[in-house]
């Protein structure tokens, strides 16, 4: 099955860092040994450091929401800096729900 990314969305922020200045790129889903992970990079195009950055993946199967996973970008993202991220979906004893697409959202904290 070909799993595709359907959208990357922005979210509201509780800080001075605007999530719209955090740009996701090179996003893809990988599967190894029955486990799934969404990997990519995030770049801060804004003027201030982005702290407590969380990237959330909503999984869908034929348009129906089936599961959700997230990760934090440790250390924050400096202005004009970028970091890699990995969202592990499921675990060895409990794989991710069957899905054919996903949507990512970026959240910042402080």
Provide structural commentary:
The chain is mostly beta strands. The chain has a single domain, classed as Sandwich (Immunoglobulin-like). The protein has no helices and eight strands. It has a four-stranded mixed β-sheet with strand order 1-8-4-5, with no helix packed on it. A four-stranded antiparallel β-sheet has the order 2-3-6-7, with no helix packed on it. It is elongated.
Total domain modules: 1
Query: Which CATH C-level class is it?
Result: Mainly Beta
Give the helix tally.
0
Radius of gyration: 14 Å
How many strand elements?
8
Distance between the termini: 39 Å
Describe what is shown at a glance.
This protein is mainly beta. The protein has one domain (4-107): Immunoglobulin-like (Sandwich). It has strands at residues 4-10, 22-32, 35-44, 53-61, 64-73, 82-91, 94-95, 101-107.
Descriptive terms for the model:
single chain; 110 residues; mainly beta; Immunoglobulin-like; four-stranded mixed beta sheet; four-stranded antiparallel beta sheet; 60% strand
Would you spell out the secondary-structure blueprint of this structure?
Elements: E1 4-10, E2 22-32, E3 35-44, E4 53-61, E5 64-73, E6 82-91, E7 94-95, E8 101-107
Parallel strand pairs: 1-8
Antiparallel strand pairs: 2-3, 3-6, 4-5, 4-8, 6-7
């Amino acid at each position: 099955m070909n799993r595709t990314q359907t959208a990357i969305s922005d979210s509201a922020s509780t800080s001075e860092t605007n999530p719209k200045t955090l740009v996701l790129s090179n996003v893809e889903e990988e599967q190894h040994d029955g486990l799934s992970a969404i990997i990519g990079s995030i770049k801060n195009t804004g003027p201030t450091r982005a702290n407590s950055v969380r990237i959330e993946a909503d999984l869908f199967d034929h348009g129906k929401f089936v599961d959700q996973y997230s990760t934090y970008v440790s250390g924050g993202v400096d202005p004009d800096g970028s970091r890699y991220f990995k969202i592990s979906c499921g675990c060895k004893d409990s794989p991710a729900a069957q899905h054919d697409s996903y949507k990512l959202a970026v959240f910042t904290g402080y």
